[in-house]
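agent> step 3/5: call structure_predict on target 'Peptide chain release factor 3' (Vagococcus humatus).
agent> reason: downstream docking stage needs a structural representation; sequence fetched in step 2, passing through unchanged.
tool.input:
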Amino acid sequence: MTKQHTEVDKRRTFAIISHPDAGKTTITEQLLLFGGAIRQAGTVKGKKTGNFAKSDWMEIEKQRGISVTSSVMQFDYDGKRVNILDTPGHEDFSEDTYRTLMAVDAAVMVVDSAKGIEAQTKKLFKVCRMRGIPIFTFMNKLDRDGREPLDLLSELEEVLEIDSYPMNWPIGMGKGLEGLYDMYHNRVELYHPEKYGSEERFISLNEDGEIPAEHPLHQDSIYSQVLEDVELLQEAGNEFSEELVMAGELTPVFFGSALTNFGVQTFLETFLQFAPKPSSHKTKEGELVSPYEEEFSGFIFKIQANMNPAHRDRIAFLRVCSGTFERGMDVHLARTGKKMKLSNSTQFMADSRATVQEAVAGDIIGLYDTGNYQIGDTLFGGNFNVSYEDLPQFTPELFMKVTAKNVMKQKSFHKGMEQLVQEGAIQLYKTYHTEDYIIGAVGQLQFEVFQHRMLNEYNSEVIMTPMGSKTARWIDPEQLDEKMSSSRNILVKDRYDQPLFLFENNFAMRWFADKYPDVELKAKL
Ligand code: GDP
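tool.output (status=ok):
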């Protein structure tokens, strides 16, 4: 095996998805601690800093300590090189969050066991599902009273329509938490081993799947309840199938408590056993490029602007798909054919930025950008000449009317608008005839970043008028009749001139569907 081959095989690249407050930051920190990437918890981001001045996103960045360094975190564990990509929640949720999922090979879904599946998890899950990547579930906060584990599993299956397979099962919960019955490793993992007069965390199960009769837990009614649940699962539950896990059709479920660091290491080790190696990537022509291919290639999935206000630089995040990236190498930008030298690149770690020397498929590198790159761009080395397929378009949920404050500055307004739209920072729609500009986003922060960048980078002050949340649905241009539009369903076209309606709410959409049953209403992702 070549060195490249060996290196690629070590890579495990994934994102952690969750609803805000389910415990993503806490679990990420635990993983980084295990990997030796940080020395103490609280390093990842100090985001719980209360209210921040919404108008100034640079301030937001500073205050919350969100930085490019926490967008991608890398560490070594068990002979694997792990890349965790952050998918921000809260106010900083944006299309970039979705696009990050295009750059990973697996996802870990963290669920608050008291709350079950929440809205944002559902959205992110949908994107993972569309990609067909393996999804692993961590049911968090076992140290608190939560919902019945069987309930959680059936909700998972019903709401997300994915089969599940518990790898372990909680023995009690909240104050009554005793441990995990780990059917995958055939052992019980104790929450408080000292309670039983030993430091040994793990007790092996016998052939009957029982802990030894002399163990005090053996008499515990909680334990016998677990055995009943496990028996039920064995009889009525799904069978484990690595193939289905890899296809993203079966999610292995782990229980634990990130805060008290219980079950997290078991999760990490088992996850790394199953997590896939870097996958092949599809070109525009539909061909697959193997991660072992010798020529370098990769695509840009995220552009983070204004990292350094003095220089107005941006960082383009590139997922390496093949070959070996070397510092200073020459590459081509597929969209323009332009040749560029990749000398200024960064590799990401939890608490420092280091210069990357070498990266292979699965790794993420940050490229300093002075305005050359767009979301979805492919870079390749030599004469490889590949172009990866476009990243999907997402259905925005929030809309604003936007105009230039100073009518004399239309030129800079249009330039900024065009570039930010191309870059994927915001989506642009125009009304028919009057050509009014409407911008769309999946998260509020996108608007704030847009406004800030328009002013700072293009010297264009914009006026934004909120239109609230709308449901966007595309229609076939052939079926378009402008008389179909009203104030409850505004007709606009996207930047590819495709018609869509912005519905005031689901009620308006149903009304429309009843009135025009032949018109198919299509959502993007
Ligand atoms: P994120 O928004 O998903 O990144 O969530 P955080 O990791 O910031 O956690 C949100 C809150 O839940 C914080 O106050 C955490 O301390 C708390 N938390 C996280 N994991 C656990 C857990 O396992 N048990 C308990 N009791 N609290 C937790």
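agent> step 4/5: record observation. Residues 281-380 form a domain with the Rossmann fold fold (CATH 3.40.50.300).
agent> proceeding.
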